[in-house]
Amino acid sequence: MPSLKALRTRINSVKSTQKITSAMKMVAASKLRRAQQQAEAARPYAERMERMLRALAASVTDSPTAPKLLIGTGQDKVHLLIPVTADRGLAGAFNTNVGRATRNLARKLEAEGKTVKILAVGRKGRDYLKRELASRIVGDVSYAGRKRIDFTDAQDIATRVTALLQGGEIDVATIVYNRFKSVIAQIVTEQQIIPAPPPPEGEAVDLGGATYEFEPDEETILAKLLPQALAIQVYRSLLESSAGEHGARMTAMDNATRNAGDMIKRLSQNYNRARQANITKELIEIISGAEAV
Amino acid sequence: MAVSLEIVSPEKLLLSRPVDMVVIPGAEGDIGVLEGHTPMIVTLRGGTIDLYEGDKIVEQLFVHGGFAEVTPERCTVLANKAVPLGEVKKAEGEKLLAEAEAGYEAADKSNTAIEDEALDLIQLARSMIDLGH
Asked: pTM score > 0.90 for this model?
């Protein structure tokens, strides 16, 4: 049986832990709201870009000079994996899930005889993969200490990926990230970004029989539009992942707060029992002392 | 009798309103868009977008390149970055021009795509200097 003093210290320490976790939950909730708004605001651009891509792709795809971003290098040998994780932990299985999915995917590809390269986005993912796949990591990006993600961050990543592709160092690129489904559910998603997936089907713009004119010409526009579309996809997954991170942290901290509450309850019960036992013992001593006189 | 104009940047929807006419800075020259314009997809250079109501310019924005889609009813501008014209600073343009020129010197001239990109940046910087204050 621990002493009363030890129990008291224990209760106090759990109480302060609970204060921290509940504060972290609040912070995550407000950051989540901001991240969701940011994701919401990015949607119109992506939608309109898809519409343009559809119009362009319709008139270019079969040309042999179509850019590499759209059709790939025609090979399937070197895969670049881009796991997107957070820079901080304490978010449940959020980071581990992406890490594990990336590791499994890398193993599977290597078993098929392909080469794997990894561009790790986020500190946690890099640390996780460093343990087993250190030799495959070709670069990493981290946003530790940053308030929000800007489009330029996504552009930087896209530029690096494009440079690798143009340099003939990779054939296929896949991004692995947590898709934000709801506050409690983030789904690990593997999305191929090079060669570009066909733009999702959508209602065709009704031009009343007319066709688009292109200025300068289709291919020049496509050459400019594709890197932008790639950056948009990266940007989207960064935003999804950041919303997911805060959602996961909120859930994790909510659980931690509740667990701390349970623990405090149990410890206080023990403490009260011990105190009562002491009092009873003292009373018995006094009474038996009085009887002995 | 209006074109519905939308200006979007990757980070948010910047502007959405009907205008009588809009002039956009196409890569190969300014394009005036009225209702019923032929469908077009164009790339933009750095320059101003002028919003007209009647014969008067009611608003001017400076875009840092991008794309535009024109259909008979609407005009959608996908801008890499857009700011009100009043916020364009000459000093920033000069700084960018110095960087762009250095970038052009360093650029690989055998690759036309890279060279074009560097030239576009110089052009953007020059128009910032012309239009800024």
From this structure: no
Give the distance from residue A182's alpha carbon to the nearest chain B alpha carbon, in angstroms.
22
d(CA A228, CA A222): 10
- Whether residue B5 contacts residue B15, with contact meaning beta carbons closer than 8 Å, is answered with yes
Q: Which of A227, A226, A217 is nearest to A159 (CA)?
A: A227
Q: How far is A86 from chain B (nearest CA, A)?
A: 20
Interface membership of B113 toward A (CB under 8 Å): yes
Classify the C-alpha dihedral A154-A157-A159-A165 as positive or negative: negative
The answer for residues whose C-beta is within 8 angstroms of residue B71's C-beta and 6 or more apart is A205, A207, B37, B39
Task: Tell me which of A228-242, B63-77, B96-110 is least confident.
Answer: B96-110
Q: Which of B40, B117, B2, B31 is nearest to A213 (CA)?
A: B40
Decide: helix, strand or coil at residue A147: coil
3-state secondary structure of A69: helix
DSSP string, A116-163: EEEEEESHHHHHHHHHHHGGGEEEEE--TT-SS--HHHHHHHHHHHHH
Residue B91 structure tokens:
């000093």
State pLDDT tens for residues A186-217.
999 998 888 877 666 665 565 666 678 888 88
A 10 A CB-CB count for B87 gives: 11
In eight-state DSSP terms, residue A91 is B
Question: Quick one: which of A153, A130, A163, A149 has its CA closest to A39?
Answer: A149
pLDDT value of residue A245: 92
Provide the ipTM.
0.81
Hey, what are A32's tokens?
């989540």
Report cis status (omega within 30 of 0) of the bond before A197.
no
Q: What is the pLDDT of residues B2-57, one digit of tens each?
A: 889 999 998 888 889 999 999 999 988 899 999 888 888 899 988 899 999 888 88
CA dist A106 → A74, A81, A103, A120, B25 (Å): 21, 8, 5, 13, 46
In chain A, residues with a C-beta closer than 8 Å to the C-beta of B9 are 45, 151
Q: Given B9, B39, B43, which is nearest A212 (Cβ)?
A: B39
